[in-house]
Design brief:
The chain is mainly β. The protein has no helices and 11 strands. Strand 4 and strand 5 form a beta hairpin. The termini are far apart.
């Protein structure tokens, strides 16, 4: 059984930074594509980044390109999302996704 657990969210002022973590259990991140999505209040889920380990490929949504960085730690089976220069429109619940599994999400609030 695959489980994903996110952490690292919080309240931050615009221009600040946060690092989100997604700990995976039950499957290795190195043979999977791992996604970060976010869901703003009243909106659908939006993919913001993904990492494809076997191809050493990273993808970012245009809205976060240059500000967010996805990375991972094989030993910890953890994927990170470093978020810099945060904007109020980055506010939302951030969710980790791998295979058919979703984490519970971590809340990010960016104040102006």
């Amino acid at each position: 059984q695959v489980l994903l657990t996110e952490s690292g969210g919080g309240l931050v002022q615009a221009g600040g930074s946060l690092r989100l973590s997604c700990v995976a259990s039950g499957a290795p991140i190195t043979v999977n594509t791992v996604f970060w999505f976010r869901q703003a209040p009243g909106k659908g889920r939006e993919q913001v980044a993904r990492i494809v380990w076997l191809e050493d490929e990273r993808w970012y949504a245009d809205s976060v390109k240059g500000r967010f960085t996805i990375s991972g730690d094989n030993a910890m089976n953890t994927v990170y999302l470093q978020m810099n220069s945060l904007k109020p429109e980055d506010t939302g619940v951030y969710l980790c996704h791998m295979r058919d599994v979703w984490g519970q999400g971590t809340q990010v609030i960016v104040s102006s």
